[in-house]
Design brief:
By secondary structure, the chain is an alpha/beta fold. The chain folds into two domains: 1-99 and 274-360, 3-Layer(aba) Sandwich (Isopropylmalate Dehydrogenase); 104-257, Isopropylmalate Dehydrogenase. The protein has helices spanning 14-32, 45-51, 57-64, 89-99, 122-125, 166-181, 197-210, 223-232, 244-258, 296-308, 313-328, 346-355, and strands at 2-10, 35-40, 68-73, 103-110, 129-136, 146-150, 156-160, 186-191, 217-222, 239-242, 265-269, 275-279, 331-332, 342-343. A hairpin with a 5-residue loop joins strand 11 (265-269) and strand 12. The structure holds nicotinamide-adenine-dinucleotide. Nicotinamide-adenine-dinucleotide binds at residues 13, 73-76, 89, 92, 261-262, 278, 281-287, 293-294, 297, 335. Nicotinamide-adenine-dinucleotide (NAD) is lined by residues 13, 73-76, 89, 92, 261-262, 278, 281-287, 293-294, 297, 335.
Amino acid sequence: MDYRITIIPGDGIGPDIAEQAKRVLEQVGTVFGHTFTCTSVLAGGAAYDATGHPLPADTVCACTQSDAVLLAAVGGPAWDTLPGHLRPEAALLGLRAQLGLFANLRPAIMYPQLSEACPIKPSVIGSSLDIMVVRELTGGIYFGERGQRTLADGTVQAYDTMSYREDEVERIARRAFDIAMLRGRRVTSVDKANILESSRLWREVVTRVSRDYPEVELSHMYVDNAAMQLVWNPSQFDVIVTTNMFGDILSDEASMITGSIGMLPSASLGGGSLGMYEPIHGSAPDIAGTDMANPIAMVLSAALMLRYSLGLSREAEAVEQAVSQVLDGSWRTRDIMSEGMTLVGTREMGRLIETYITRG
Ligand code: NAD
């Protein structure tokens, strides 16, 4: 099969790590007999410098016409003083909106080889961790009515509104159940249904959707308890599905448990198969162009792309397996370096992962 991939290298370390994801994809193509036609386009600061806008129309057009989008990272001090709509980060929000991406998938995976970096005691975390946080991305309190008003007594009051429509909850719930079917078949829906009306609707709709997935075990958890359970007994979770704000907070908490920002990918999905895949870290301007960046989060983002947009689960596993084998082999980039390991740069890490891609 021939797949069209749009790559957005972006800024800072973006081009360094995007190059490694591309070489790994090429190897997957060779080993499994696919063609990945990769087109690089501009977004973020690099796009602003070249065109005066962080998200040129050509970029959006290329993304909508492809099977999936791989984005490295955008942003940096050179563009920090620009007005909000011209800042590199505006490209991310623009892409999510224009591609209709309402589901954000944030896996929190702890590799046993890196367990030393985990801030939680080994007796609690065990030898590995694999949680998928599915966060609603385009609704809830971040998009509700907001403002400030002056009350009769002269006090200024500010407000934000959390609202969800049934269809918004239903589509994210379906995504979460579909994902659970590809994993451990357990979904924990996180809400605050003891207090919030929007959470009561959330719970009702998720429960209704669950009837279409009899193989998946559904449980409900209040968000305060979920925050606690994530550090108390993280391995109890398989898929967590939750609202925009709760997901924002819980996905950061879950990723910190794994210990390394350079290792974690993410995916943003819409109604169809088109998705955007990116590492959770930023553009790391402090190490841009130094061959020090860890390309693994980017390579694992490509693995998520293979699984969720292209339906290539075996190929995704081959990439994840290759990363694991490189870690077994004791090679480390600087951010995950520890005593007795062999330090390698961005390019060498990419090359090593490439060499371990096999049909299994
Ligand atoms: P950052 O994630 O870029 O960097 C934080 C720290 O982690 C730095 O010390 C950096 O060197 C290190 N780091 C990050 N990724 C790494 C990797 N792959 N390998 C090794 N070390 C890595 O966060 P920041 O410094 O707060 O932000 C820098 C810029 O990135 C800002 O302009 C910010 O707006 C932008 N940003 C972009 C995205 C995105 O594109 N999705 C996300 C977050 C931040």
